[in-house]
Design brief:
Blueprint: H1 6-21, E1 60-63, E2 66-68, E3 76-77, E4 79-83, E5 86-91, H2 93-97, E6 105-108, E7 113-116, E8 118-120, H3 128-133, E9 135-136, H4 143-156, E10 163-168, H5 180-184, E11 192-196, E12 201-204, H6 206-212, E13 224-228, E14 234-240, H7 255-271, E15 274-277, H8 287-298, E16 306-311, H9 320-331, E17 336-344, H10 373-385, E18 389-394, H11 397-414, E19 422-425, H12 431-439, E20 443-445, H13 455-464, H14 466-469, H15 476-480, H16 499-508, H17 535-542, H18 544-549, E21 567-570, E22 587-592, E23 595-599
């Protein structure tokens, strides 16, 4: 449907008002009446003596596109107009033309597909510094390859006083993890601390153990595991809170290095179509990360929104809530802001530390619950009363049930409110608890990048059995129950954090046949195919649902008049292509608040 010209409407209104007070004269017989309800003897219109107000031109107009607005009707329009970083028009080409002035930039999309700027609802953006300064171990499938990669990195940086890195896979090494002896073969002289791909275990060498004072007599810290040999000596793998034992072995990054990492990550995010990235926690004490975020924003160079959660740990008492509230007030209003409190409830399945309702198959016990449930309940109640959103890491089904119990307890104590608490990861979830997500208005934050049959799946079969392995990572059940689902990468755990890949995996739950991201995947097998969702639902999870999760659905997340002009132009129409081709889609342009922040190499209008 074409829109009536705004200029014409204004002229008609002026003419009508003037005609109401003009002398009565017969209207020309050839002229139609202004309104069918008025008598035929109505006075003829009098020409306006003053020009109608001019329509203010837009700064930017997109035409001839397939623009999927993700509004409540999931409308598709041809054109978009932006003024002052805000969308002022979404409709057809004719209406957009009315907003084109002498200085307006007009982009002919030539039929290309446009989406709102994408949102990653759980990504450790400050870990961009790791991509710059640490040895990458992602996608490697053998001990020998790990050793060679480390040796090559050290050969290229001979002056290092200590080495840090990440990305190794638990399944390569077995239940006890990698050993210090393996690292000593290639790095005997300096401390080495290498984090697993999920960042819930650390592989260290003998120098690191010595520097940290970790010996046979060192007890396992609460919530942590020091993997040991038959005599009780540390083997070289530290899990969960035991990683803190070597926290001071590697010199911390400077604020300047964190800023460098943030700039790197921001550019990376733009190339993937991301304009909002939720940081679920900050490294170490967090102050260097906060300072870096401040510094980047103050420079005027922050072109990704970074809502951020501050950590709340079992050793904290409820006075930390006052600190979070104060910090939230101090940071309000910018691209970087404090959005929530982050709580770790358990570990990870591959480390045997996810907290399960039924015991593991390969070891005694149900895993590691990091919080006393009653203390957690009380913390939830105090956070909720202060109006602080809660973001919880939970992998195991028992952990998720206890997490929901805390949210329910807070509601009982304080009464219902629009809390929008979030639970992320959700590897195993009891079916009855999916109903509780809906009842408590809890947002599910899964990582679709993990919805595949790969080495992690094989390990899950070994650790928890076939039946439970085949229940991993529900998705469709959340949508079917009306739960808001906001997708995320958990970068750098998922690398690259490419939403196009995640959208495909959400739809197909199968690794792309040419992918090199996963080690030895089974390309033919889908992980629980009955949990497949639609591409429209995957888009929702990376746009409007992500905005809802941070209370900004009225500002971002869809392309509607009055919202901020965050949008991306893609090489393929995601609504029409074969789902197995989604991962091949390229981001051509990324705009943040009406400003171009990324252009694919070689692309021109």
């Amino acid at each position: 449907m074409k829109h009536t010209s705004p200029v014409l409407l204004v002229l008609l209104a002026v003419v009508f008002m003037l005609s109401a007070c003009a002398p009565s004269t017969p209207a020309p017989t050839e002229a139609p009446p202004v309104s069918e309800s008025k008598p035929a003897t109505e006075p003829a219109p009098v020409a306006a003596t003053e020009a109608a107000p001019a329509v203010e031109p837009a700064d930017l107009v997109l035409t001839n596109g397939v623009i999927y607005t993700v509004d409540k009707d999931r409308s598709v329009v041809e054109a978009l107009a932006v003024r002052g970083g805000i969308i002022v028009y979404a409709g057809d080409n004719v209406g957009a033309q009315e907003l084109v002035g002498a200085e307006t930039k007009v982009v002919d999309l030539e039929g290309k597909f446009v989406l709102p700027g994408l949102m990653d609802s759980h990504a450790h953006a400050t870990s961009g510094v790791s991509d710059l300064y640490e040895v990458p171990l992602y996608g490697i499938g053998s001990v020998e390859e790990y050793q060679q990669t480390i040796a090559d990195f050290l050969a290229a940086a001979p002056d290092l006083a200590a080495l840090q890195g990440a990305g190794w896979i638990n399944s390569v090494f077995g239940p006890k993890g990698p050993t210090a002896a393996m690292l000593d073969e290639v790095a005997p002289e300096i401390p080495v601390v290498l984090y697993s791909e999920d960042y819930h275990s650390a592989w260290v060498n003998t120098k690191a153990l010595e520097a940290a004072g970790v010996t046979k007599d060192t007890p396992d810290p609460a919530g942590g595991i020091i993997e040991r040999d038959a005599e009780g000596n540390p083997l070289g793998t530290l899990r969960e809170t035991a990683m803190d034992l070597v926290a001071d072995v590697i010199p911390p990054y400077t604020v300047e290095q964190y800023v460098e990492g943030l700039v790197y990550f921001q550019d990376f995010a733009h190339s993937l179509g991301l304009t909002t990235v939720y940081i679920p926690s900050l490294p170490g004490g967090g102050e260097a990360g906060v300072d870096a975020l401040h510094k980047l924003e103050a420079s005027g160079g922050m072109t990704v929104r970074f809502p951020t959660a501050l950590g709340v740990f079992p050793e904290n008492d409820t006075t930390i809530v006052n600190e979070i509230v104060q910090r939230r007030e101090e940071e309000a209003g910018g691209a970087f802001e404090i959005a929530a409190a982050k709580i770790f409830m358990d570990g990870v399945l591959e480390g045997g530390t996810a907290y399960l309702e039924e015991p593991y198959s390969y070891q005694p016990g149900n895993g590691e619950l990091l919080w006393d449930p009653q203390k957690y309940n009380e913390m939830c109640a105090v956070l909720d009363k202060a109006g602080v959103q809660i973001h919880v890491h939970s992998i195991g089904d028992a952990s998720t049930r206890i997490t929901l119990d805390g949210f329910a307890y807070a509601r009982e104590q304080n009464g219902p409110r629009d809390s929008r608490n979030m639970i992320t990861h959700l590897q195993l979830v009891h079916p009855e608890d999916i109903d509780r997500f809906a009842d408590l208005d809890v947002i599910a934050v899964p990582q679709p990048y993990w919805f595949v049959v790969d080495t992690y799946y094989t390990q899950a079969v070994e650790y928890v059995g076939q039946e439970r392995a085949d229940m991993q990572y529900p998705m469709k059940r959340f949508f079917d129950k009306g739960v808001k689902v906001a997708s995320a990468s958990d970068y750098p755990v998922s690398w690259p954090p490419d939403p196009m890949l995640a959208m495909e995996l959400g739809v197909t739950r199968t690794v792309p046949s040419e992918s090199e991201i996963y080690v030895d995947p089974d390309y033919e097998t889908a992980l629980t195919p009955e949990e497949d969702v639609t591409i429209e639902q995957m888009i929702e999870s990376f746009t409007i649902n992500g905005a809802y999760a941070i209370f900004k659905e009225d500002e971002i997340g869809s392309l509607e008049v009055g919202k901020k002009a965050d949008f991306i132009v893609l090489s393929q129409n995601l609504l029409e292509i074969d789902p197995k081709e989604i991962h091949n889609t390229v981001v051509l342009l990324t705009y943040f608040e009406g400003q171009e922040v990324y252009r694919s190499e070689g692309y021109s209008e």
